[in-house]
Hints:
The protein is α+β, with helices and mostly antiparallel strands. 30% of the residues lie in helices and 20% in strands. Strand 6 and strand 7 form a beta hairpin. The two termini are 23 Å apart. GO terms for molecular function: ATP binding; protein serine kinase activity; protein serine/threonine kinase activity.
Amino acid sequence: xxxxxxxxxxxxxxxxxxxxxxxxxxxxxxxxxxxxxxxxxxxxxxxxxxxxxxxxxxxxxxxxxxxxxxxxxxxxxxxxxxxxxxxxxxxxxxxxxxxxxxxxxxxxxxxxxxxxxxxxxxxxxxxxxxxxxxxxxxxxxxxxxxxxxxxxxxxxxxxxxxxxxxxxxxxxxxxxxxxxxxxxxxxxxxxxxxxxxxxxxxxxxxxxxxxxxxxxxxxxxxxxxxxxxxxxxxxxxxxxxxxxxxxxxxxxxxxxxxxxxxxxxxxxxxxxxxxxxxxxxxxxxxxxxxxxxxxxxxxxxxxx
Length: 304
């Protein structure tokens, strides 16, 4: 549990007859932001593009029906927080002074309405999700390209996303080196408060083998399995399916470097206890070679 300082918008104010009623949360939202076209729809809600009226800052506006909202924590004034809001605020606190390190998409505002919650998020421009980035490439990514992205992905944040996949990874395309940003923390959990659920959170086709065979689930080993999935889909021309891998219907390319194949195979260990941790992946020879290979003039800035 952690405390987060926020400005309370829910305090009741006694007003005289001459005073105007306080604006509703909806009025405040509409006064501050302009909502535009639908960007995407998922199981937990819909995301629209938009702008902050004061400075035309591009934003993403996420609408989450109240039945899909999971409450998990409270701030210092007792206001309830959803798992997604709590995770994003914690990540922002940890990354505030981390220049040159991974950075999550920023949460700018959130509003609670009767029927839904609205999150207003940073919207990097130009950017595409990783699945579109792979499609635009028209062929599997080069190993060095994939390595740059995976290195950013395995940075330790003390929060498990639990649904890491190309659709939930934004790639900023405005610089020579792709900048990676994780989005959609609606299924995330904190590493110091939750270790084993016994229930799988995420995309069904990406379920780890321990859940498929025994309905056992741990966020840490499952996250490493998902890192392997992201790398597999970047380097191959097929979508990943855990059951197909278990049935030997998916193969790792033989022309990849030895270290890359070892990295993938370690992520895909059938036993969760044999998979490396995220910290151990950071020290894998395949990723360490990337850092050694870059001169001071081309050192990568790592993001999430």
